[in-house]
Amino acid sequence: MTSPPHLPRRHVAEQLDRVADELADAFHGVFAPDTVTRFVHETHALLDEHATIKTHLVTLTARFARQRLTDHGHAQGLATVTVPQVLFICVHNVGRSQMAAALLDHHASGKVAVRSAGSRPRGAIPDVITTALAEIGVGLTEAYPKPLTDEVVRAADVVVTMGCGDACPVFPGKRYLDWRVTDPLDQPLEQVRGIRDDIDRRVRALLGELLDT
């Protein structure tokens, strides 16, 4: 489902209502329909605030709202959790945090749930990032910048910050790591490869710790 640019507000509302109906069915017995509808409309507003290109905003809203509801259920103890969850945060969620999330998801093979977010998300993921990852067989074709929300932090077991300062809320019971990684934005491919390899080493080490526990 996509929403063309400048789609009348009434049509956007109708599309969001359809998304809410679909997610209410998916989360039946976990969340009330009103809760699902609230999450969907809040999610659309969050993405609309930060999006540079808004052609597929409704589709992204459906995806992000599903993730947020999943994490909210996790944080509230309403869903069964079988694997640890890691959240990567950088400033814009188009570089370091996206690379780290893609690498961990690739190496974990479903044994870890992975999230990423930005303290001030904006723009689109540069081609140099996707190229550097594709060189080692890691895809990043469906990723998009996402704002940092409360429930994704609450649902995480490990929170990895990567140059976002003190923007991340701190909750007890979480493991917080701060990785000093060079920002790959506006860097040439050769530099991005080095950053990719640095993140990859860190990700592999973290995965080894998570699977040993």
UniProtKB/TrEMBL annotation:
Protein keywords: Arsenical resistance, Oxidoreductase
The GO terms describing molecular function are: arsenate reductase (thioredoxin) activity
**Can you give the residue ranges of the Phosphotyrosine protein phosphatase I domain?**
84-209
| EC number, as in UniProt | 1.20.4.4
Q: Does the keyword Oxidoreductase apply?
A: yes
Indicate the enzyme's highest-level EC class.
oxidoreductase
For whether the record's keyword set contains Chloroplast, the answer is no
Task: Supply the name of the protein.
Answer: Arsenate reductase ArsC
| Organism for this UniProt entry | Actinophytocola glycyrrhizae
